[in-house]
Specification:
The complex is a heterodimer of chains A (about 375) and B (about 300). Chain A is an all-alpha fold and about 375 residues long. In chain A, about 75% of the residues lie in helices and about 0% in strands. Chain A has one domain. Chain A is built from 16 helices and 4 strands. In chain A, the strands form 2 sheets. A two-stranded antiparallel sheet of chain A has the order 1-4. Chain A has a two-stranded antiparallel sheet with strand order 2-3. Chain A starts with a helix and ends with a helix. Chain B has about 300 residues and is mainly alpha-helical. Chain B contains 11 helices and 2 strands; from the N terminus they run H-H-H-H-E-E-H-H-H-H-H-H-H. Chain B starts with a helix and ends in a 14-residue tail after the last helix. Classes of the chains: A mainly alpha (about 375), B mainly alpha (about 300). Chains A and B meet through helix 5, helix 6, helix 10, helix 12 and helix 14 of A and helix 4, helix 9 and helix 11 of B. Chain A: It is found in: Cell membrane. Chain A: InterPro entries: ABC_transp_permease, ABC_transptr_urea_perm_UrtC, LivM-like. Chain A: Keywords: Cell membrane, Membrane, Transmembrane, Transmembrane helix. Chain A: GO terms for molecular function: branched-chain amino acid transmembrane transporter activity.
């Protein structure tokens, strides 16, 4: 048993190593346009890992991950906007009739503050919300619905507070980052490499965390929270920490997203994008961190390919994809891998248990 | 005095709309525990049925165009209920007990429905004409006019609520329905066809969504994404109300309606909505199972 699961883990590391090598070589064979597209998908992949940690291992399905992605993205965008505006006021503030920079914009003059804030602010927001939600033992679908409401609230706020946030148009028109021009190919390539490195670090961090004692407790909480609580663990703090960490990582994804894509707007972080993020994880296979990366790359790759060639068909296909993944292959892409490779079927790991969780709740419900 | 009356009326009006869109969800989510993200699209189907009925009336019986709406209400119920029935038999029955999976699968359904609507009716919003007998308003006192269409929606919400109450608590079918929802195994043992009841219950919830869509036609233009605007609100109403009790849904719709209009009056429209949602979350912290909840002793 142990050897089998070790084998599986080694194979996953192999797959991961292969992926990183391919990604590092990508600039040599991809056009600039494709590379920037890939860079965007990689920032999504970071968000997908963060969501997988939360949902696949912690059992908390957040439908508001876009919010944390957005908080990170907006932090970065505020810095970039201030750089682009120089000593003047950002253009959308002028249009909305502001004469002075709002106080909460001021610290974003400093890159180190913006970069730090893009991780810390989402983590702090998640910690506060998570504490409130988890302490009153709101869980399961209620947690999902509340996070969805959060996504709605934040988008309404962003759209409504036009003078401070740029409203529906979001924040755009950046020129430099740390003094380097964003339109330069070399800057973009450097940013791409930074993204790959961040992705690798996030993966390794989450892999290490889920394999540790902490990860085991997290999985136990997912499967039977009350029992873990009765064993004397403070499950609330475990969940709050996981939620905050997940939000921080999503924020990192957002911070990397903005300089490479050049815009962030409420439409990219609202209710609908937040659900799409969940889909990446579901397609890749939840509870397998590598699956989250694959899912984000596959779904977004298919999306941009299909919406280039058949713009109308994409929504049908996406819809069918969700249904097919849920009904037919609940393990996602990684589940298919596992089915193909029968020898791995006997792993007693968390992944093999995942489908049976549903069954046990079914029994208790009926 | 006028302002206060107007505020009360506005609250009532918003509450009645919330109640209409949440009633169906109170059945599918509250009773059956099915997270149906396509609920908004069932609302959309109801709205488009109203639109189609109006077009048919314009084309074939222009003389009685004013009464198209009376035909549209039951028809939108039936069509939405039919789609709900198909949805339950075709997809949701395979996913009972897996709420999060249901959520994702029905989200897929909702995308497909939206795209179908876009392909049939076009992406831009379409306008549904308010029948002439619902235009204008009732003058309650000088300077205070209550719009008829809003009054009509309030009445419609009350009719739906009473209808559901009578069905659930004073009919044999409703009794079977509650039996299945409370203890499926026991109900099956007593000869109640649980699978069939599931399908009918889901169909009724979907039909109510259709009626809500029909009502929304009176308020403004309708489009393929009309459902997504309302789905979060509807879920908040059901969650705040507490699962499994109609009275909770009514109370929650009332509370959120009042909060919305009051905050809107005190600040801007967007802040009103934000504050109302924050209040709801804060309230759930204090009472996690909602305003009214069934008392159970289950633990995992």
């Amino acid at each position: 048993m142990v050897t089998v699961s070790k084998l599986r883990l080694d194979k996953e590391w192999l797959l991961f190593g292969l992926m990183i090598v391919v990604l590092l070589l990508a600039p040599t064979f991809l056009s600039d346009f494709r590379l920037s597209l890939l860079a965007k998908f990689l920032t999504y992949a970071i968000v997908a890992i963060s969501l997988d940690l939360l949902w696949g291992y912690g059992g908390m399905l957040s439908l508001g991950q876009g919010v944390f992605f957005g908080l990170g993205a907006y932090s970065m965008a505020m810095y970039l906007k201030l750089m682009a505006a120089g000593s003047a006021l950002p253009d959308f503030m002028v249009w909305s009739g502001l004469t002075e920079l709002p106080w909460f914009w001021k610290p974003f003059h400093y890159a180190w503050f913006a970069i730090g804030a893009s991780v810390i602010i989402p983590a702090m927001v998640a910690a506060i919300i998570g504490f409130v939600i988890f302490r009153s033992r709101i869980r399961g679908v209620y947690f999902s619905i509340l996070t969805q409401a959060l996504a709605l609230v934040i988008t309404i706020l962003l759209v409504g507070q036009q003078p401070y946030t740029g409203g529906t148009n979001g924040i755009t028109n950046f020129s430099t980052i740390l003094g380097f021009s964003l339109s330069d190919t070399s800057t973009q390539t450097t940013l791409y490499f930074i993204t790959v490195i961040c992705l690798a670090c996030v993966y390794i961090l989450c892999r290490w965390l889920t394999g540790s004692r902490f990860g085991r407790i997290l999985i136990a909480i997912r499967d039977a929270e009350a029992r873990v609580r009765f064993c004397g663990y403070n499950t609330v703090m475990f969940k709050v920490f996981t939620f905050a960490l997940s939000a921080g990582l999503a924020g990192l994804g957002g911070a990397l997203f903005v300089p490479q894509v050049g815009i962030i707007s409420p439409a990219m972080i609202g209710v609908v994008p937040s659900i799409e993020m969940v889909i990446w994880v579901a397609v890749g296979g939840r509870g397998t961190l590598i699956g989250a990366i694959l899912g984000a790359l596959i779904v977004n790759g298919a999306k941009s390919y299909l919406s280039e060639s058949f713009p109308d068909a994409w929504l049908y296909l996406q819809g069918l994809l969700f249904i097919a993944v849920i009904l037919l292959v609940s393990g996602g892409v990684m589940g298919i891998f596992k089915k193909l490779n029968k020898s791995q079927k006997i792993t007693g790991s968390a992944i093999a248990l995942a489908p049976s969780i549903g069954k046990s709740t079914q029994i208790s419900r009926r | 005095m006028d302002v206060l009356l107007l505020q009360i009326f506005n609250s009532l009006s918003v509450s009645s709309i919330l109640l209409l869109i949440a009633l169906g969800l109170a059945i599918t989510f509250g009773l059956m525990n099915v997270i149906n993200m396509a609920h908004g699209e069932l609302i959309m189907i109801g709205a488009y049925v109203t639109y189609v009925v109006q077009i048919l009336f314009e084309r074939y019986v222009p003389g009685s165009l004013d009464f198209y709406y009376l035909v549209a209400i039951p028809l939108s119920f039936l069509v939405s209920a039919f789609f709900g029935f198909l949805l339950e038999r075709g997809l949701i029955r395979f996913l009972y007990g897996r709420p999060l999976d249901t959520l994702l699968a029905t989200w897929g359904i909702s995308l497909i429905f939206q795209q179908i609507a876009r392909d049939i009716f076009g992406a831009p919003n379409v306008e549904v004409k308010t029948p002439s007998w619902l235009k204008g308003g009732v003058e309650v006192m000088s300077g205070l006019q209550l719009p008829l269409n809003r009054l009509f929606i309030i009445a419609l919400a009350i009719v739906c609520l009473v209808g559901i109450y009578v069905y659930m608590y004073h009919s044999a079918a409703g009794c079977r329905m509650r039996a299945v929802m409370q203890n499926r195994a026991m109900a099956s043992c007593l000869g109640i066809p649980a699978g069939k009841i599931d399908a009918y219950t889901f169909a009724i919830g979907s039909g109510l969504a259709g009626v809500a869509g029909c009502a929304l036609c009176l308020l403004g233009p309708i489009g393929p994404s009309i459902g997504t605007y309302y789905i979060v609100d509807a879920f908040m109403v059901v969650v705040l109300g507490g699962v499994g009790k109609l009275i909770g849904t009514v109370a929650a719709a009332g509370v959120i309606g009042v909060l919305n209009t009051t905050f809107e009056f005190g600040s801007t429209a967007t802040m009103g909505k934000v504050l109302a949602l924050v209040m709801v979350i804060a309230f759930l912290h204090w009472k996690p199972s909602g305003l009214v909840s069934l008392k159970v002793r289950t633990l995992d």
